[in-house]
């Protein structure tokens, strides 16, 4: 096979190869190109782009040539017999290991009912390298907001907050280490709600831990929240088109201008995008 490949390249160089042989040489060169390898390069340009579609399919695209490395129709979102259909809501980065090369990054996909807002949410953890669903969990509460925090535990799992329909925040992973990390920073944690129909933006802060949630930490530690501020746009003259914020791990003082009102807030997080870059495995 080795000599056959070199022979075909020689024929192509001497303009003696047929159309099929030229196509085979081009395919061989493409497969051997550095930019198409599934290994991490020194500069960090080769990555897997994870994309979540509305139909519940998660795809990994290679940034070198754009090909689909793997695709997964998330099994945990399949509707049970007689149950409501689950639609994907958000893609979150759950774990990106750096200490051990043999460990794989994981992403978390949040699913919600396609027809009703009071149906409990579904969480699905997926291996970012192989496109395999690792496990799934059905929560006992609906989720209105979900976002990652710039905090990771010793296993490099990122801490996340899930806000239910009662404006209560649930912290995951539900471990004592995660709880200790978050309690040190909870006074700097905020989230906001946007009602485009009414033209209202409301900001919330985290209050104290609900002690009874220590007994049911598998679904996250429960925290009470409080409304800190609100901005109301006049319906007659203004409407909210969209809301944009900074990266979730960027702690900075950001100035927002709403009409003629200037508000300064030190943000702890922002909304996540529906795409993530994941470095391929180290060769």
Structure report:
The protein has two domains: 1-32, no CATH class; 33-278, Methylamine Dehydrogenase, Chain H (7 Propeller). By secondary structure, it is mainly beta. The chain is elongated and about 75 Å long. The strands form four sheets. It has a six-stranded antiparallel sheet with strand order 8-9-10-13-12-11. A four-stranded antiparallel sheet has the order 3-2-1-16, with no helix packed on it. It has helices at 2-13, 19-32, 176-185, and strands spanning 48-52, 57-62, 68-73, 86-95, 106-113, 122-127, 133-138, 143-152, 158-164, 169-172, 190-195, 200-209, 221-232, 252-258, 261-267, 275-278. Helix content is 13%, strand content 40%. It has three helices and 16 strands. A hairpin with an 8-residue loop joins strand 5 (106-113) and strand 6 (122-127).
The tally of beta strands, per DSSP, is 16
CATH topology of the largest domain: Methylamine Dehydrogenase, Chain H
Domain count: the total is: 2
Biggest β-sheet, characterized? 6 strands, antiparallel
CATH class of the largest domain: Mainly Beta
Category by helix and strand content:
mainly beta
Task: Give the low-pLDDT segments.
Answer: 255-283
Percent of residues in beta strands: 35-45%
CATH-derived architecture of the largest domain: 7 Propeller
How large is the radius of gyration? 24 Å
- What is the averaged pLDDT score? 78
Which strand order do you get reading across the main beta sheet?
Answer: 8-9-10-13-12-11
Number of helices: 3
Distance between the termini: 24 Å
Helix and strand succession? Answer: HHEEEEEEEEEEHEEEEEE
Could you estimate the helical fraction of the residues in percent?
Answer: 10-25%
| Overall form | elongated
């Amino acid at each position: 096979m080795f000599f056959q490949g070199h022979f075909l390249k020689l024929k192509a160089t001497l303009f003696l190869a047929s159309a099929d042989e030229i196509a085979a040489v081009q395919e061989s060169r493409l497969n051997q190109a550095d930019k198409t390898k599934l290994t991490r390069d020194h500069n960090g340009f080769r990555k897997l782009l994870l994309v979540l579609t509305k139909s519940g399919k998660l795809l990994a695209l290679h940034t070198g040539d754009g090909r689909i490395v793997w695709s997964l129709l998330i099994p945990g979102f399949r509707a049970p017999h007689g149950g409501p259909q689950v639609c994907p809501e958000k893609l979150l980065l759950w774990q990106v290991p750096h200490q051990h090369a043999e460990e794989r990054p994981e992403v978390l996909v949040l699913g919600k009912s396609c027809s009703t807002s009071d149906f409990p949410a579904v969480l699905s953890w997926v291996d970012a390298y192989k496109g395999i669903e690792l496990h799934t969990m059905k929560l006992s509460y609906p989720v209105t907001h979900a976002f990652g925090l710039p905090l990771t535990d010793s296993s490099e799992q990122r801490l996340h907050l899930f806000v239910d329909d009662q404006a209560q925040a649930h912290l995951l992973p539900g471990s004592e280490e995660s709880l200790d990390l978050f309690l040190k920073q909870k006074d700097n944690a905020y989230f906001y709600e946007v009602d485009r129909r009414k033209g209202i933006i409301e900001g919330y802060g985290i209050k104290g831990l609900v002690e009874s949630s220590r007994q049911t930490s598998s679904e996250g530690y429960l925290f009470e929240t409080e409304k800190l501020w609100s901005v109301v746009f006049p319906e007659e003259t203004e409407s909210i088109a969209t809301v944009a914020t900074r990266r979730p791990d960027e702690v900075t003082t950001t100035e927002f201008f709403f009409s003629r009102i200037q508000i300064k807030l030190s943000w702890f997080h922002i909304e996540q995008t529906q795409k993530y870059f994941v470095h391929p495995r180290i060769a």
